[in-house]
Inverse folding.
C-alpha cells in the first residue's frame, strides 16, 4: 500500500510528463478501437451482402463455371433446376431455393453498343428482395419481357419507366439472340456494382438464352440457425440420386476470397495493435529513464534506508501501470464514443468505391464490440507496464554511493 501511495505521488509530481506518456498510450488505444470496429463492420457488412446479393447461404453451381466465367459458359449449368428446387424445398431444414442466371448483354443505342450485365431471378422470394430497393415503378411479372434497371444503368441509358431497349447476348448453344424488354422499375441496391445491371424474370431469361429448365446458380436459404454443413450433406444426397457429380455445393464463406482476406486481416490487425503499443511504450520508457536520472538521489536514499531492489522495481512498475491505466482508459472511452457515433451515422465510402467490384455497401457502419474495447484497454496496460521493466531494473541497480556522488 505504501508503494502505491509513493507511485501515485510520483506520477503527480510531473503532470506534463505524465500527460505526454498517457496521451501516447491513449492514442494507440483509440486507434485500435476505430481500426477493429471498422474491420468488424466491414466483415459484418460483407457477410450480409454475400448471403443476400451474391451467393445465398449455400450456392449450387457447376464445378467448372468459375474457371470459364469470362467466356459466359452457359453450357456449364445446373440442369433440371425446377426438379432440384422442389426436392431441396422438401427438406425440413430449408426455407427457400431460388434460381439465378447472370449473363453479359449488349444494348444498342444511338449507334453505340453498351455492355450491360443481366440477371435472371425470381422477383418474389429471392433473398435480394428487389421490392425493398425499388426507386420507382414495380417488379417485372413472371414470363413477361419486363426488367428492372439499376440506377447507374438507367442513368447511362437515359431511360425510365415504360422505355424499351433491345439486348443482345449469346445463347447456351453459342448462337446470337436478341430480346426487347420494357422497363417497369428502377432499383437502387446498396452495392454500387449491382446498379449497373438489369434484372428480368428467370423464366424470361431462360427463353432468351435458350436454357430450357437450366440455370447457372441455385441459392439456398436454410431455416434460422441451421448447420450449413449438415444442409450441404442433405443436398449432396439429392444430387447423388440424380448422379449430378459436376455440381459444387458451397457455403457463402467458402466462395469469396475477399471475405477470407478480411478474416486474415483480423489477425494482422491484432499484431499491428501490439506494434502500436510497443511504439507508444517507448514514450513511457523514455519518461521513466528521465525520471530515474532526475531521482537518482531519491533512489539512493531509499536504498540506503534499506529498500530492496525488488520494491524499487515494483514502485516504478506501479508508476508505469498508473500512467498506462489512465491512457488506456481515456483512449478506450474516447475511441468507443467516436465509434458509437460512426456506428449510427455510418462512413460514406460511395465515391471511393466507384468502379470497384467489391461486396461492400457505399455506407459502412463500424461495429463496436466488448471484445475490441477489452483488447485495446488490457493490451495497453500490459504492454506499457512490461515496457517499464527496462528502466525499473536499471533504477534498482543504482548504488547509494553513486547516488550520493550525483549531488
Amino acid at each position: 500500500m505504501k508503494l502505491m501511495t509513493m507511485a501515485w505521488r510520483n506520477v503527480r509530481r510531473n503532470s506534463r510528463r505524465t500527460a505526454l506518456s498517457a496521451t501516447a498510450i491513449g492514442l494507440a488505444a483509440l486507434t485500435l478501437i476505430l481500426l477493429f470496429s471498422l474491420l468488424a463492420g466491414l466483415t459484418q457488412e460483407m457477410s450480409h451482402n454475400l448471403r443476400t446479393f451474391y451467393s445465398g447461404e449455400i450456392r449450387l453451381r457447376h464445378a467448372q463455371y468459375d474457371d470459364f466465367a469470362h467466356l459466359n459458359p452457359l453450357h456449364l449449368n445446373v440442369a433440371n433446376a425446377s426438379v432440384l428446387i422442389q426436392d431441396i424445398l422438401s427438406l425440413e431444414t430449408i426455407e427457400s431455393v431460388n434460381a439465378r442466371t447472370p449473363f453479359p448483354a449488349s444494348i444498342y443505342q444511338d449507334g453505340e453498343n453498351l455492355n450491360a450485365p443481366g440477371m435472371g431471378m425470381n422477383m418474389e422470394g429471392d433473398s435480394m428482395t428487389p421490392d425493398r430497393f425499388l426507386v420507382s415503378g414495380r417488379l417485372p411479372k413472371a414470363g413477361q419481357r419486363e426488367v428492372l434497371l439499376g440506377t447507374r444503368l438507367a442513368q447511362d441509358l437515359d431511360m425510365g419507366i415504360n422505355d424499351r431497349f433491345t439486348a443482345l447476348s449469346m445463347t447456351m448453344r453459342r448462337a446470337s439472340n436478341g430480346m426487347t424488354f420494357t422497363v417497369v422499375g428502377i432499383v437502387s441496391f446498396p452495392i454500387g456494382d449491382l446498379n449497373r445491371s438489369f434484372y428480368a424474370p428467370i423464366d424470361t431469361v431462360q427463353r432468351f438464352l435458350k436454357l430450357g429448365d437450366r440455370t447457372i446458380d441455385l441459392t439456398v436459404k436454410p431455416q434460422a440457425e441451421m448447420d450449413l454443413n449438415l444442409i450441404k450433406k442433405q443436398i449432396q444426397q439429392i444430387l447423388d440420386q440424380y448422379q449430378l457429380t459436376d455440381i459444387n455445393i458451397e457455403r457463402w464463406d467458402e466462395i469469396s476470397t475477399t471475405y477470407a482476406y478480411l478474416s486474415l486481416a483480423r489477425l494482422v490487425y491484432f499484431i499491428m495493435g501490439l506494434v502500436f503499443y510497443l511504439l507508444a511504450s517507448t514514450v513511457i520508457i523514455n519518461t521513466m529513464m528521465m525520471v530515474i536520472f532526475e531521482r537518482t538521489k531519491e533512489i539512493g536514499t531509499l536504498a540506503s534506508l534499506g529498500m530492496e531492489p525488488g520494491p524499487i522495481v515494483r514502485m516504478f512498475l506501479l508508476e508505469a501501470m498508473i500512467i498506462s491505466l489512465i491512457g488506456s482508459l481515456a483512449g478506450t472511452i474516447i475511441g468507443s464514443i467516436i465509434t458509437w457515433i460512426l456506428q449510427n451515422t455510418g462512413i460514406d465510402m460511395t465515391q471511393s468505391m466507384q468502379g470497384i467490384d467489391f461486396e461492400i455497401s457505399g455506407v459502412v457502419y463500424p461495429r463496436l464490440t466488448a471484445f475490441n474495447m477489452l483488447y485495446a484497454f488490457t493490451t495497453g496496460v500490459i504492454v506499457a507496464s512490461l515496457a517499464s521493466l527496462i528502466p525499473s531494473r536499471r533504477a534498482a541497480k543504482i548504488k547509494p554511493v553513486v547516488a550520493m556522488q550525483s549531488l
